Request: fold
Amino acid sequence: MNKKQGFARAHTNIALLKYWGKVDSDLILPANDSISLTLDKFYTDTKVTFSDDYTSDRFYLNRHLMNPKKMQRVNRVLEAVKNEFGYQGYAKIESENHVPTSAGLASSASGMAALAGAAVDALGDVSDLNNLSRFARLGSGSASRSIFGGIVHWHRGYDHQSSFAEQIVAEDEIDLNMVTIVIDHRKKKIKSTLGMQHTAETSPFYPAWVEATNQAVPEMIAAVKENNFTKIGELAEHSASMMHATTLSSNPSFTYFAPETIQAIKLVEQLRNSGIECYYTIDAGPNVKVLCQSKNITRVRDFFKNYFAEEQLVVAKPGSGIKFTKN
Amino acid sequence: MNKKQGFARAHTNIALLKYWGKVDSDLILPANDSISLTLDKFYTDTKVTFSDDYTSDRFYLNRHLMNPKKMQRVNRVLEAVKNEFGYQGYAKIESENHVPTSAGLASSASGMAALAGAAVDALGDVSDLNNLSRFARLGSGSASRSIFGGIVHWHRGYDHQSSFAEQIVAEDEIDLNMVTIVIDHRKKKIKSTLGMQHTAETSPFYPAWVEATNQAVPEMIAAVKENNFTKIGELAEHSASMMHATTLSSNPSFTYFAPETIQAIKLVEQLRNSGIECYYTIDAGPNVKVLCQSKNITRVRDFFKNYFAEEQLVVAKPGSGIKFTKN
Reply:
């Protein structure tokens, strides 16, 4: 029995300039570039074992076998990696998510990045990180960014080869932290794939969103390289606001906001006006993520403790890129 | 002592396709056409007395003398009417607002429309309603629409002469009613004049807002003429959502939404999905206005009584145009 094994650990990430809408849903080519912060603590460990003896691909998530019908995206990644290395057999994938649902963060980014990394680790050479990013992208757009640590730029590109992420600065070169206010940790009612598709198809504001985001990319890269927290925060907050404005302007209109989302936005403004610099960002869900510098993490957390339960507040710092060992 | 007296009663209105942004803030020429519903019950009564013996213009609102420094917009209307009729003296204006603050509705539309009507009634002929609409516009953009009853279309125009409102259908020709959910009856924190200016200057989505609204105008006119409640409601809800999307996308971003605004929006969707057809609209404030047909007013009100206090729910029906007598 000829076995090939690979392992990878990848961290989740949060977009500072949001990915919102695809131009190719098969290849997951996005309409606009995006820029993200990789987070520490929240990661996925994945082991991939290829064997000629297996008769089908099997995916165990937290030791539970996944329904083959739900493996469409996993299969896209596996097929692409197998093709690249000319492998014809099947795989057993064992994945452990360390992105607790209660943290209000999505696990698809770290999950698909770890899958891509472990599969390539089993069959070939993992040194080409841009290529890992391409494979991860086929599983989930935001996963393309989880290959790298620190601040990451996903080039939208125009085909499989040109659409990949790369690092702008490493995790130890940036002072940018996130306090998530977990307003609802249940699964999204409107999945981001559906939400972005409806928006791209029906919002009269969508073309302006794409243009504004692509224009903001060089500004964000410059701000990140200068470690200019104010500029990073302003650009991130505006990107999130614009993204949620596109959902409101779609037809029929919809919103990911919960009542407490508005409450949290106003509290962020209140805290900022009081002299503690912080900015919000919001993904395709009601949770509000507060960006701040290290010196203010405790102050930000203490302030929100007045309005939310302690277990609703989750702190994350810049995280590292993909690794192929457990340590 | 040579006195000339005039009187007018004008009703307030709610925009179905929103007015949001000016191209000329002096003449109040809007960037886009708008369409509104005039409301019964909520109105302003205004008496204007011109006399050669007066030495200044005085404005009494609910019997309180207004600070002359706050009379800028009143003066614009008065000056324009005086010029039109070659009158050189001053005016005493006595205005009674029957738009209770607790109804969550603005009184500037009915107030400036009644002022324009009463001033013209004192000095000349009130039969040219389009001309009254122009004078009212100089006091407050939305006042141009309060000259007429039923459903009203304000042509944006390109100069003073071409920017005026006219009736699409009369109040007895349309089955369209409004239940306001008064979430906060205090004055707006960000006045609509400032909010629309900031939006027009900084939102990357603003040009698309103007284009989308102007494109929706003929659709709304057709829907109104057919008394097509579904189409009117869908267009109105989308217009309101787009308007609030423009504030979110401005830079820095802002919103008129309160937490309860999101709650009310979701309740409207829930009620509609349960088979009671209704749509929301929201102006430059947190209050949510629910549009429904006559047959559903009680059902809509009863549903929202489960979530809001009875005094927070205010019903309004289509109202009539300007009148020059008290009855």
